[in-house]
Amino acid sequence: MSETGDIADLYSMTLRDLARDPAHKGRPEAFDATARGDNPMCGDRVDIYVTLDGDRIREARHVARGCEICQASASLLAELVPGRTQAEAHALGQRAGEIAKSGAGNDTTDELHRLSIFAVVHKFPSRVKCVTLAWNALDAALSGVKETSSE
Amino acid sequence: MDTIISPLFDVTRIRQDFPILSTKVHGKPLTFLDSGASAQKPRAVIEAMTRSMETAYANVHRGAYHLSEAATESYEAARIATQRFLGATEPEEIVFTSNSTAAINFVAHSYGRGVLQPGQFVLTSEMEHHANMVPWQMLRDANIGIGLRYVRVTERGELDLEDLAAKLADGKVGLVALTHMSNVLGTVTPAAQIARMAHEAGAKVLFDGSQAAVHRHVDVTAIDADFYVFTAHKLYGPTGIGVLYGKRKLLDAMPPFLGGGDMIESVTLERTTYAAAPARFEAGTPPIIEAVGLHAAIDYVTNIGMGAIEAHERALVDHAMAVLPGVEGLTLLGGAQDRGGVFAFALDGVHPHDLSTFLDRHGIAVRAGRHCAEPLHTRFGVEGGTTRASFGLYTTPEEIDLLAAKLTEARRFFA
Ligand SMILES: Cc1ncc(COP(=O)(O)O)c(C=O)c1O
Question: What separation in Å is there between the alpha carbon of B159 and the centre of ligand 1?
């Protein structure tokens, strides 16, 4: 990986597959909480929909209008949060943000390993907010807020 | 196409005036196509500002000693240079602010609240930069009875002049506030015609010249503008200083906005009388060093000649119009007859962010997003934003060719 971050490292196959994967996309018919993340400067927008089993997240889906990083992050979120408590999901989002900001991503656990695709983002500082938008929207949805942003 | 080399305008030599243009980004020569957001600075500006700090710096208007007198003199000399640059009648018609945004907000407060009457309207347009939209919305929302109207933009990205006429027709518009050149579409608006229409309907007119003043020779007297604003940092000058031109009799009738030092005539504990314009509007220590930089920037562009700059940029626009539409999957926003070197576009299948990161890794600086013109992006159905390439006097046709080649590459990369 080059000093300043190679374009091909940023747009890894994993990231691009996630961005395009339709599995977690689309507004579900029924859901328990939703929120919209808007980055007004760039126009990115992510709607997150979650269904809950008590404190646990059963399913998460998203409708994202944004770049590949933003879409990949929203898809990974939807893949990783089911089965977790709200506090665990929040912690995961914090971790995603930290990994994108600092490049630290050498965790061994499986799901955290998935988040390490964002480690390269720290070499593209203006793109960190593309990773965090979906997670901020999830936090907002879980705390009953309707709108948020990562700018 | 060959680089345009004329005795009047030698872009190769001009590029040598800008130290930053010989730097590298990610190991690639810098291709700077974001001058519309802020332009790079020639050595003449950098050195003039340094020289002022090294040899002639003190606070202005306040000291009866050599350095303060020298600083005051250069600050006021910048006002005279700006007056000449805009074709204003008197230096007192030039008010220094911190940027275009501050200049427009100042007019919205001082003229909007102090002179406009309840029942009157401000008329702006869909294609404004937020700087020429939000201050008017704030005025509308201040509950003082001032309304807001918007002129529509045509599919080609031009102001709909019929709509302008219709919205002026009832004589209730007190102020028309329109851009002189769009920072997204590149559209240059027919300022003299707009001013005539406004005046016939009994309205005053403000032009946001943030883009136009950089690319064209502007003569506020010939246009018959009542207010005209621009910002130094887009004119190859420093950040931190902007300009408001206002006709003398309008400025004289306007109340101050910020109170403080430098804007008073006399102060007692009971009451204060204010200085005449422009001092009345320049409360506090002004941008002294920045004024020197602005003066140097004005000298720099006028020495080259605004006419020569305009001709060079016209050739660049023609070149871009010949090359960019040939890029597969590229859609340009707008297509005005009279346009400057600002091109916003969508590239099919590639998000503007991903595209600008891709281009950055090839040394090309462009802007992605909505360029502080969200309603305009909504108008054209590109809520998610566009990518924008904007030119300066140092831009070359080869840079446009490189952009086109890398756009094609980006499309393949993201396919
Ligand atoms: C058309 C237009 N108006 C206003 C502005 C605001 O300029 P500034 O940020 O210097 O106040 C800009 C630049 O961003 C612009 O392009």
Answer: 19
